[in-house]
Amino acid sequence: xxxTPRLHRRLPWLLATIASALMASIGCARGPSDxxxxxxxxxxxxxxxxxxxxxxxxxxxxxVVTFLPPRGASYVGETDEAGRYVIEGAGxxxxxxxxxxxxxxxxxxxxxxxQRLASRSSLTGxxxxxxxxxxxxxxxxDLGRSELKAVVGPQGGTFDFDVxxxxxxxxxxxxREP
Length: 178
Hints:
By secondary structure, the chain is of the alpha+beta class. The protein has a domain at 5-24 and 63-161. It contains five helices and 13 strands. The chain has helices at residues 5-26, 32-36, 117-121, 127-131, 138-141, and strands spanning 49-55, 58-59, 64-68, 75-78, 84-86, 88-89, 92-93, 98-105, 107-108, 133-134, 148-152, 157-158, 161-163. Strands 1, 2, 5, 12 and 13 form a five-stranded mixed sheet that branches. A four-stranded antiparallel sheet has the order 4-3-8-11. The longest helix is centred in the N-terminal third of the chain and has 22 residues, at 5-26. The chain is globular. The two termini are 34 Å apart. The model is unreliable at 6-16 and 18-41 (pLDDT under 50).
């Protein structure tokens, strides 16, 4: 199967999200070189990290929030009906103090179903994930482009994010027939 242009563009991000979720759910072993480097976010025990995500001012339910440190595994959470999330990773709640790049992703299938963390973490692609389209602007949803950042202090922190929708790409729009 040859990926469609839209799937091809999302495939690296999708694979990174799945890998991050899997690493977060099973934990990651640290190698000898990591143990000596105390500058990584994983060096300290996790502290509580939570917040609220709003899409254009309204709480966003079913979004996946990813905290990515400069080195090491990512930490993820999923928003509830009120847009609240709690970050988890490496088998425990919270994240170590440090600086993080943050992404908020809200994938929705062609049937209108949000693709939550469980769907994204599945080893086999779910039908919803095959048709899912990102609803949040790339400047918030793409870890490579995200403008969102968080600095988690020694006591943890609350990080609220207000994001906007993805603006359709004019090149992908179908031309109108006369």
